[in-house]
Amino acid sequence: MSGELYINGSWSHGQGPALTSSDPATDETVWQGATASAGDVVAAVTAARAAFQGWADQPREARIALLRRYQKVLEARRPAMAEALSRETGKALWETTAEVGSMIAKVDASIAAYDERTGEKVSNTAFGRAVLRHRPHGVMAVLGPFNFPAHLPNGHIVPALLAGDTVVYKPSEETPLAGRLLAEALVEAGLPAGVFNLVQGGRETGAALIDQDIDGLLFTGSAQAGAFFRRHFADRPHVILALELGGNNPLVVWDAADAGAAAALVVQSAFITTGQRCSCARRLILPAGASGDAVLEALVSLTDRLVVGPWNGADEPFMGPLISARAAELARGAADARYGAAVALPVATRSPEGGAWFAPRIYHLGDEATPDEEIFAPILQVRRASSLDQAIEMANDTRYGLSAGLISDEAAHWDLFQKRIRAGVANWNRPTTGAAGTAPFGGLGDSGNHRPSAYYAADYCAWPMASFEADQVLPTLAEIKGLRP
What we know:
The protein has helices spanning 38-56, 60-89, 93-117, 151-163, 176-189, 203-210, 223-232, 259-270, 290-304, 325-339, 388-395, 411-420, 457-461, and strands at residues 5-7, 10-12, 18-22, 29-34, 121-125, 128-136, 139-143, 166-170, 196-198, 216-220, 240-244, 249-253, 281-287, 343-344, 361-366, 379-385, 403-407, 425-428, 440-441, 453-454, 462-469. It is of the alpha/beta class.
């Protein structure tokens, strides 16, 4: 299979500039090729448009059968795909193995979600038969992120294909190999030509794609990019936008007797995936006084023990590097600008230095406020509150609203927290990064646009058609009021 692009059932070479992807731990090249030109993007959208009606007209069972084959291909390729994802992203092998597992599980979850949320429903009334059907939108553009470069775009692509949409997918320019592997699995499953198309490239390729005649944009990425897309499509209301964006997520610890257990949940919330999850906790809110001090002490001690290293190192790592040296440079600059005067707690995590490596950082701010921005790195700010009411108020003091968490032994605290917190994902005594595949995933404010993904992806992949039906033409003259004799 030669070529970087997959358009209309064939692999081909891109006509755009060259692109290289490297292992962020070693700087070793893992993928290189030419990107898609504007003409390549036009060809991909044209192919998807031409294939749409035939794919949409396929019996639902035929689309399910194809996705079941895709599921089997992923299962067979799981070890090799997980290793490739670790090489390209720097993530630990245990994490990329779980990522491929999530891709496999997405097929079953999407079929169940389609049946429950967007299937066909019939009810009989005194006036005829009421039928609810759902129809695919058409051509969906999917822009993938780098942090879960296989699982997250897969979470858009699978429900879109199941609904009868066709897809043009552009992976992140940081993870083109992940996009290639996803495409290869779909191709092996036997998708008809034009139903799925792959274009590689950076911002220019993405810009060319969103300027085409598409019916939907399914995007996972930063709040800044989401704001741009809202503006870009303001005069194209027929294009459905599903935006899963970032967050400045709060985690409150209140009346938790076991400080060590609380610290473990904080570490899993703040530092997993090297802080590169949109649902990572960025703000830890503790009680003022001894109980908060105990959690903070346990947190620093546990963070000291985290193994930061390459995915294939002698010691299994908890986390690897950031996605690139450039990302690490930007994170360091943002942290220094925001927290320069703050107290940095003495975390002694042994981590490689330089390049894309970035050890966890914890800043103690007391009651000092900081800019409401997301830094996509393992950085946690700690603030103190005098009451649970104040802690919840501080937690809600953000323009974002993706995830939030409460760590507490008191059920009454959770009852208050879940009623008042403004977040699409709110967890109790579980990491803020935890989300069930049978639930929606999305946020409020700058974290989304009220079109959550995961189980609710079915909602934005099809539109509802309501029908009132009778099997034959019946006389309804008597129903017409105000007729002359």
